[in-house]
Amino acid sequence: MSKLDQFKVKAQYVLPKHGISRAMGAFASARCGFLTQAFIRWFIKQYNVDMTQAVHEDPRHYHTFNEFFTRAYKPEARPLLADHKELAHAVDGAISQLGPIHGDTIVQAKNHDYSLTTLLGGKEEDAAPYLDGQFATVYLAPKDYHRIHMPLDGVLRKMTYVPGDLFSVNPLTAENVPGLFARNERVVCHFDSPHGPFTLTLIGATIVASIETVWAGTVTPPAGPRIHSWDYPAEGFNAVELKKGEEMGRFKLGSTIVLTFPKGMVEFADGLEPLTPTKMGTVMGEILD
Is residue 2 annotated as part of the catalytic site, yes or no? Predict the structure, then answer.
């Protein structure tokens, strides 16, 4: 690792990451006229953002940076290609890691792993269905589409907010900060599907100003001081049922998701490995039941 990379990693331990992130969030949600437009145009050029896929291609349509960053895509740009026996990619991004969960241990990067139980909020009963199961971690880069969609039909049974740090989640940090995804602020969503349970965890990061779900709106900020969970019924008035391909949440500024599945429920598609690009709605794997 170069000296510059070492500095980038070490600086994150001392910087006021929550303060920086909330300040960025305030700017991203503000209507700052020319300043907002200039920043959007700089961002598009800096990260080579393809605006032709957006419902509104003209940057002038967006009055805040958040409106631009969470822009909707044209339906034909992200068709649902996975059929009823296939797992769909939930996001645009790139595979960080995927494969078997070894007991309670998930691989983060070379020489780094972390606890499944800790990731999901610390309760053994929440982690039990996924011991020795399968996981996939997907990183969303700044240029990517930042809405998160369902990989399977699912009924929400529980949502857990877990307070934590806000380290960057880019590949450099993932390779050098122990337990990164289980120490950052996150929102864990537990679903029942026709094929078995699964979890979808939205990981916070430096300058990720907001994590939202379609059923609860903004979950964070503000950051809470302790873990908090909400239970949802399987059916009835307050039930949350989402079909494969439907939007379930979004990041206001980029981050990472982690999916977990029970042993024997899914088999990931051939060729998926770290750095493989992902496109929402395309086939991620096969459902085995």
Answer: no
Domain check: are 181 and 260 in the same one? yes
Task: Identify which of 83-92, 103-112, 213-222, 246-255 has the greatest average pLDDT.
Answer: 83-92
Both 181 and 265 in one domain: the answer is yes
Between the alpha carbon of residue 98 and those of residues 31, 101, 250, 274, the distances in Å are: 40, 9, 22, 8
Greatest mean pLDDT among 28-42, 47-61, 217-231: 47-61
Q: How high is the pLDDT of residue 18?
A: 64
| Cα-only R_g, the chain | 18
Residue 234 parent element (H or E): none
3-state class (DSSP) for residue 201: strand
Residue 97 or residue 1, greater confidence: 97
- 200 occurs within a structural domain: yes
Does residue 258 sit in the same domain as residue 217? Answer: yes
Domain-embedded: residue 74: no
Given the residues 89, 92, 190, 210, select the one marked as catalytic: 92
Whether 75 maps to a domain, the answer reads: no
Its domain, for residue 180, covers 80-287
CA 198 to CA 262: how far, in whole Å? 7
pLDDT digits (tens, 9 = 90+) for 109-153: 877 899 999 999 999 999 999 999 999 999 998 889 999 999 999
Residue type, 266: V
Residue with tokens 């529980």: 158
149 is catalytic: yes
Find out whether 284 and 95 touch, Cβ atoms under 8 Å. Answer: no
Catalytic residue among 104, 144, 146, 149: 149
Say whether 255 is catalytic: yes
What share of the chain in percent tops pLDDT 90? 67
Helix (H) or strand (E) segment spanning residue 249:
strand 247-252
Q: Are residues 205 and 85 in the same domain?
A: yes
Asked if 225 and 171 sit in the same domain, the reply is yes
